[in-house]
Amino acid sequence: KLAMASKGIADSFKELAVIVNTPGLDVPVKNFSDACSRFFVVFKVLKTGMFPRFPEIEYVTKVNDLAEASNLTPTLELMVDRDIEANCVRKVGSHTRNLLRIKRSLEMMRVMCEVLLDTESDHSLRDATFTAYNQVFAPHHGWAIQQAVATGIGSLLPKTLLSGMFNETGTYVTASASVTNYLDNLFLSKNLGIDW
Known about the structure:
Layout: H1 2-20, H2 29-37, H3 40-45, H4 53-69, H5 76-85, H6 95-117, H7 124-136, H8 143-154, H9 169-189
Pfam families: GLTP
Domain Glycolipid transfer protein: 27-155
Protein name: Glycolipid transfer protein domain-containing protein
């Protein structure tokens, strides 16, 4: 299952990368949310300690929100434009705010994969997750959340027990970088910034 999930994630983000790297094409909300939802099975496998609550709150519910939004809004850019018009971009629960949080989750997973590619340690899953969290999310979280996440990360399984998850790591790293760069440019082009 993990090997299949890994390939599904890589393939979905490769398809998204083609879209974002093609001038004149807008990213469909449905394609984006479908690709992001491929990670849900990974979170189920990692369901241990206090860690599961973090991806569930920061990722799963927000991806589901965009999946619902795709029924009414065809592209990510149009979705952001509509939130701007409604003056609700930074409101908790807005599609644009959720998109920014999803982008950070994708970045965290990319950094985690980059660390895994650089080490063969049996404990590298813990190390990679800790490094990725500190780099991407910790600057936006208070002390209590940081401590809860650190406790959860400490209970993660060794990499060897989840080796099937990392078969397509390099592919995801390359493809997701294009996708998150697109999202950065989208936010910046609308003068929204990316540090809120």
